[in-house]
Amino acid sequence: MLLLILSYLGGVLTLFSPCVLPVIPFVFARADRPFRRSGLPILLGMAATFSVVATLAAVGGSWVVTANQYGRIAAMVLLALLGLTLLLPALAERVMRPFVRLGGQLQQRAEHQGSVKGALLLGVAIGFLWAPCAGPILGLVLTGAALNGANAHTALLLFAFAAGAATSLAGALFAGSRVFNLMKRGLGAEEWIRRGLGVAVLAGVAAIALGLDTQYLARISYASTARTEQTLIATLSGAAKPTAARPSAGMVPVASALKLADEGPAPALTGATRWLNSAPLSLPELRGKVVLVDFWTYSCINCLRTLPYVKAWWDKYQGQGLVIIGVHAPEFAFERDEDNVRKAVRDLGIRYPVAMDNNYAIWNAYHNQYWPAHYLIDAQGRVRDHVFGEGDYAHTEAAIRQLLAEAHHNVTGTMAPPLPLPAGGVMAAAGNDGNISPETYIGSERAEHFASPERVQQDRIVHYSAPSQPALNQWGLAGQWKVGDESATLARPDGAIVYRFRGRDLHLVLGTPHGTPVRFRVTLDGAAPGADHGADVDNSGNGTVDGNRLYQLVRQQDGARERTFRIEFLDPGVQAFAFTFG
C-alpha cells in the first residue's frame, strides 16, 4: 500500500515536470469534447498503455525495445495526422486523403456513438509516446519491476504512477476546457484555437521524434521534483533524509579476523542511467568476486576524502578478486549531467566502474541514506559489512582481505597502516578539530543561519546587504541575487557571500550553468588569504569558477580558527550551492 501511494503521488508530480509538455497538446486537442466520453478515455488509454509497456521494458529483452519503437512510430504518425486535421484539414485531405480519412473518422467517432473508442485509441497512442521524467519514485518502482519480474503487483504500481499523472492532467484539462469555452464564446476564436492546437500537436510530435522528452526536458526537470519525491519516500517510510555522513570513529587497528555479520542478499545493481569505465554489471555475473559498492557524489567533501583509500584498494586488490563499483547518486541537479560526471571521474583519477544512479534506483534498493556509504558483498552475493561516512579504513581493508580469503583468493601484499594516505587539495584528510562549522546550504529549501537584513524572496532578483558583524556560523549575501530551492544565482557583477566560520578548510560548491567562467576574489578578515589559500585560490585570493564542482577556498596553515570569509564574484551568472568545512 505504501508503494502504491508513493507511485500515485510520483505520477501526480509529473505535471510539474517540463518533460510532460510534449504530451499535453495531444490531451488538450480534445478539450472541447465531453470529459467522460473523450478526456477520460484518453487518459485511461494513456495510463494503461504506459503501465504495460513500462512493465515489459523493465524486465524484457531487446524484442520489447524493438516492438515499442514500432509502436512509437505508429503513434507519432497517427498523432501527426490529428495535428494536420486540426491545422489544415482541407490541405491535409487533398495531399493525404486516405490517411486523413482515418483522422476524420476519429473525429466523427468523437462526435457520435463511437467517441469513447476513438478517444481510447488516441490515449493508447499517447501512452506509447509518453516518457515521464524518471525521478526517485519511478526509479524505485522500476527497480522493483526488474527484481521481481513482470507480475500483477509491478503492473499495478506502474498503473498507479500513470493514474497519478492522469489525475493531474485531468485537472489541467478540466481547467483548460473552461478557458477554451470562454474564449470561443467571448472572442469567437474557435478557428484560431483549433489551429493553435494543431501547431502544438505537431510541435509535440517533433519534440518526441527528436528525443527532447527523454533527453533535454528530462534533464532540466529533475531538480524541480526529485527532492520532493525523495522527501515523500523518506516521510512515508519513516527514514531520515539523505545526508552527507560525518566522519566515523576513525582509523583504528583491527584484529586479523573480523566477525562479519550476514546482512542478507545484496540488492541488484539495476536501474543505473549510465555506466562509466565499464559495461553494465550485475551481481550474478560477479558471483565469486568480492564487491565493494561505494555510494558517492562528486561535490561531496566527505566522499572526496574517502577516494584515496578506495582507489588504493582498487589498485591493490582488483587483480586478486575485488570489484569496486562507485554508485554516483547526485545531490544537486548539475551532478546528474553525464558530461559533468565523466569529467569528475577523469579529473579524480577513478578507474573502477561507476554507475550513474540518477533515479536513485540502486540507492533505494539498498535503503541507503548517506554519502559516502560502503557496502561489502561476499563471493556468494551477500552483504557482509557496511560503513557510513569517512574513517574506519583499516577495518574496511581488513574486511576486504578476509572476504577475499573466504573466497579462496590468494591475497598478497600487506595491509596499509591506519594512517591518512598522502593526498592534496579536496581529497586531503580532514583536520583533527571536531568543533567546526556545519555544512550550510545556500538554497532556500535547506538554508540556515542567514544573516543579511533583507528577507529572502524565492525566485526573485533581490538586492541583499552583507551582515556587518556576523556571529559564528552566520552568513549572508551582498548584491543582486536570485535565490532558488537549491542554490543562489548572481544576477549582476560584484556580488558577494560572507560567512563567519570555524575550521581548517572552507569549501564551497559553485557552478556556472552556461559554462562561462566567473572570476572571484577571496578575503579572510578583510585581507588576502596568503598562505591560508585553498587549492582553487592563489595567495592573493584570486580564482575562477570554471565548472560545476566543489571548490577548496581556504586551508589554514595553523589549523582550525574562527575567521570571517568573503568571496566576491567579479562576473555575473555564478551559482552557489553549499559550504562544507574540514
What general form does the structure show? globular
Main sheet attributes: strand count, strand direction, barrel closure: 11 strands, antiparallel
The assigned structural class equals: alpha+beta
> Approximately how much beta-strand content do the residues carry?
15-25%
The total count of strands amounts to 19
Mean pLDDT: 79
Radius of gyration equals 27 Å
Please, could you describe this protein's structure?
By secondary structure, the protein is α+β, with helices and mostly antiparallel strands. The chain has 3 domains: 2-223, no CATH class; 274-426, 3-Layer(aba) Sandwich (Glutaredoxin); 440-581, Jelly Rolls. The protein has 15 helices and 19 strands. The protein has helices at residues 2-13, 24-28, 35-59, 62-87, 89-95, 97-111, 115-129, 136-148, 152-187, 190-209, 216-237, 301-317, 338-347, 361-365, 393-406; strands spanning 243-244, 274-276, 290-296, 322-328, 354-356, 370-371, 373-377, 383-388, 440-441, 461-464, 475-483, 488-490, 495-503, 505-511, 518-524, 542-545, 549-555, 561-569, 575-581. The strands form 3 sheets. Strands 9, 10, 11, 12, 13, 14, 15, 16, 17, 18 and 19 form an 11-stranded antiparallel sheet that branches. The chain is globular and about 80 Å long. The chain starts with a helix and ends with a strand.
